[in-house]
Write a structure and sequence with these properties.
The complex is a heterodimer of chains A (377) and B (259).
Chain A: H1 12-37, H2 42-50, H3 69-82, H4 84-103, H5 106-116, E1 123-126, E2 142-146, E3 149-160, E4 167-174, E5 177-184, E6 190-192, E7 206-217, E8 221-222, H6 228-264, E9 266-267, E10 270-271, H7 276-304, H8 310-335, H9 346-356, H10 363-375
Parallel strand pairs in A: 1-4
Antiparallel strand pairs in A: 2-3, 3-7, 4-5, 5-8, 6-7, 9-10
Helix pairs in contact in A: 1-3, 3-4, 3-6, 3-7, 4-6, 6-7, 6-8, 6-9, 7-8, 8-9, 8-10
Chain B: E1 2-6, E2 9-11, E3 33-35, H1 37-53, E4 56-62, H2 68-77, E5 81-85, H3 95-109, E6 113-117, H4 128-136, E7 140-150, E8 153-160, E9 163-170, E10 173-177, H5 189-195, E11 200-203, H6 245-255
Parallel strand pairs in B: 1-4, 1-6, 4-5, 5-11, 6-10, 7-10
Antiparallel strand pairs in B: 2-3, 7-8, 8-9
The chains are: A alpha+beta (377), B alpha/beta (259).
Family (chain B): Belongs to the ETF beta-subunit/FixA family.
Organism (chain B): Acrocarpospora corrugata
Pfam families (chain B): ETF
């Protein structure tokens, strides 16, 4: 089922066609096998990079695609539907490029963004720590000022692309608060834990990143010293929209699998889709998906218009990921026993959906963000 | 070298395709239009020849307004410019009249080499390359899975039932390609952006000096007499192996004249 998409840019529709083609031919066929094998599809990201898709929402002068979030997020949605690890990977890469783009100096932007957005490299983002998750400010990773730059010690946890990324955008404590740093993967003293053994998204490594006396030059600092928490929160606003788009894409895939099955499967002489118990489940799924899509696109349009959108992004992330979890569970139910086995993709969708309620701020944190915004002052 | 690639927009084979009840032509509005798959191989081959020998790649398509989507895709892959032959008078043209209309257009725009896919997924006549060559008085090198250019000469490896033939000719020439010839590139986002600025020239039948009495559904040499919806697929035949599975399978295949 093709989702009818509109784009505010003229090139958006051709972009969506390209994305659908890549998703169908290069991404989807690999998902099931690589998830079982726990194999990271670095080559798939290279194909997307070569097609110019790893920098879509950034300025063209820095090698980006110059696309509004309204277009970029729909691209994420399409890829997430084909394979969540790829859609989410794109979102994380985009997030990791945000601090330099929005807070970097001209020299950092001109010098680094063309490489970061060029498609050959993949980024990771390090905010969480083993003891500092929702309470991000409680981090203990420290960047001490030393002659000519910084020396970083500490551990970042739950890092998507940990061990396979080419650069890490991290937050660390400095004397004046939290600061943001750009760390190339090969920097001496950077090491990685074993990939976490996750419920889903096993192809995409999630690992601890350890910093042991890592020497960084002064220009590794992004933004002002002490500005890191603000940078992290601003980056997460955009990242949350990426997760919302992933959730809608994954829910759409679950819905399509359930619908296709319900139209084929016959019991008591009828297609099970024609039984109201199943038909209404499909109707509810489609309605919830459409609502979630509208919600993230609404937040995206606010962002594109330069308006505050953080609360809307939190609402979109909260609603879309809870919706996705339910859609994935219902899709398994529609397929019955077949939904519970690996021969059909919906059991994987159900395992994958869960993580979206946790990452880029748990859904409890989203409610906190929303309620605080509502009751401020 | 001036290479023209003929591309065709066809209804997406993944969607339901139907004919119109009024004039029994393809209902192009009912299905999503996509570039005919073999045309992508033709565009790819043209781009590779251009990269190796220099020159320019022009995309030529005959089709309704919405065929501009297909033109843009070919331009996004890297073709330099396009000519869109579009005129209500062309609606319903069969292969023979299409070859006439395209030949007239090719005479106007000029070419050293014309490349086509060997057939389209809608009509599947596979005759256009031969017809064009005949009308233009040029050599035809069809069903190519390899193309080489040296100076004014062209050599192709032509796929046959028994292997392949080596066919040589001199330019200008008409080539049709099969899917084994290459792996078409994806357009890139940069290519999509660049395509917006590329020239697309629109030709009506007068621009190409096409005689209206030789094109369109009323002047077609072939006619769709009737059509019906394909019957639903019947249940298959299951051969149960009770020690004689091979014989039963062979008998079944023989009854269907496969062996």
């Amino acid at each position: 089922m093709k989702v009818d998409r509109v784009s505010p840019t003229a090139e958006g529709h051709d972009l969506f066609d390209l994305v659908r083609e890549l998703a169908a031919k290069e991404v989807a066929p690999r998902a099931a096998g690589d998830e079982v094998a726990g194999r990271f599809p670095r080559d798939v990201f290279r194909v997307l990079g070569a097609s110019g898709l790893l920098g879509l929402p950034y300025a063209e002068e820095h090698g980006g695609g110059g696309q509004p979030y309204e277009v970029y997020l729909q691209v994420i949605e399409e890829f997430a539907g084909a394979w969540l690890a790829v859609g989410l990977g794109m979102s994380v890469h985009t997030l990791s490029c945000f601090p330099i783009s929005a807070f970097g100096t001209d020299a950092q932007r001109d010098g680094q963004l063309p490489v970061l957005l060029g498609g050959d490299v993949l980024g990771a983002y390090g905010l969480s720590e083993p003891q500092s998750g929702s309470d991000a400010a409680a981090m203990t990773t420290r960047a001490a000022a030393v002659d000519g730059g910084y020396s970083v010690d500490g551990v970042k946890a739950w890092t998507t692309h940990g061990g396979v990324a080419d650069f890490y955008t991290i937050m660390a404590k400095t004397d004046d608060g939290i600061s943001c740093f750009h760390v190339p993967a090969g920097t001496e003293g950077v090491s990685f834990g074993a990939p976490e053994r996750k419920m889903g998204m096993r192809s995409s490594p999630t690992a601890q990143v350890r910093f042991d006396g890592v020497k960084l030059p002064a220009d590794a600092l992004i933004g002002d010293s002490g500005q890191g928490f603000r940078i992290a929160m601003a980056a997460l606003d955009g990242g949350r929209l990426g997760i919302a788009a992933c959730a809608v894409g994954l829910a759409q895939a679950a819905f399509e699998a359930a619908t296709a099955y319900a139209k084929e499967r016959r019991q008591f002489g009828s297609r099970i889709a024609d039984f109201q118990g199943i038909g209404f489940m499909l109707a509810d799924m489609a309605t919830q998906i459409a609502a979630a899509r509208a919600l993230y696109l609404d937040a995206a349009r606010l962002r594109d218009a330069g308006r505050p959108y953080g609360t809307n992004a939190a609402m979109a992330k909260l609603f879309a990921t809870d919706m996705c979890m339910k859609a994935a569970i219902d899709a398994v139910q529609v397929l019955g026993g077949y939904g519970y086995v690996e021969d059909f993709p919906v059991e994987r969708y159900m395992r994958e959906a869960k993580v979206l309620q946790i990452v880029e701020g748990t859904n409890q944190i989203q409610r906190l963000v929303i309620s605080r915004a509502l009751t401020k002052g | 070298m001036n290479i023209v690639v003929c591309v065709k927009q066809v209804p997406d084979t993944a969607t339901e395709r139907k004919l119109r009840s009024d004039d029994k032509t393809l209902d192009r509005d009912a299905a999503d239009g996509v570039i005919n798959e073999l045309c992508e191989y033709a565009v790819e081959e043209a781009l590779r020849l251009k990269e190796a020998h220099g020159g320019e790649v022009t995309v030529l398509t005959m089709g309704p307004d919405k065929a501009t989507d297909t033109i843009r895709k070919a331009l996004a892959m890297g073709a330099d410019k396009a000519v869109h032959l579009v005129d209500p008078a062309l609606h319903g043209s069969d292969a023979l009249s299409t070859s006439y209309a395209l030949a007239q257009t090719l005479k106007k725009i000029g070419f050293d080499l014309v490349i086509l896919g060997s057939e389209s997924t809608d009509a599947r006549t596979g005759m256009l390359a031969a017809m064009l060559a005949e009308r233009l008085g040029t050599p035809q090198l069809t069903l190519a899975n390899k193309v080489e250019i040296s100076g004014a000469g062209i050599t192709v490896q032509r796929v046959t039932d028994y292997g392949f033939d080596k066919v040589e000719a001199s330019l200008p020439a008409i080539v049709s390609v099969v899917e084994k010839i290459n792996e078409p590139r994806y357009p890139s986002f940069k290519g999509i952006m660049a395509a917006k600025k590329k020239q697309v020239q629109t030709f009506g039948i007068a621009d190409a000096e096409i005689d209206a009495a030789q094109v369109g559904v009323a002047n077609a040499w072939s006619e769709v007499a009737d059509f019906a919806v394909a019957p639903p697929r019947a249940a298959g035949t299951v051969v149960k192996d009770e020690g004689d599975g091979g014989v039963k399978t062979a008998d079944y295949l023989a009854s269907k004249k496969f062996i």
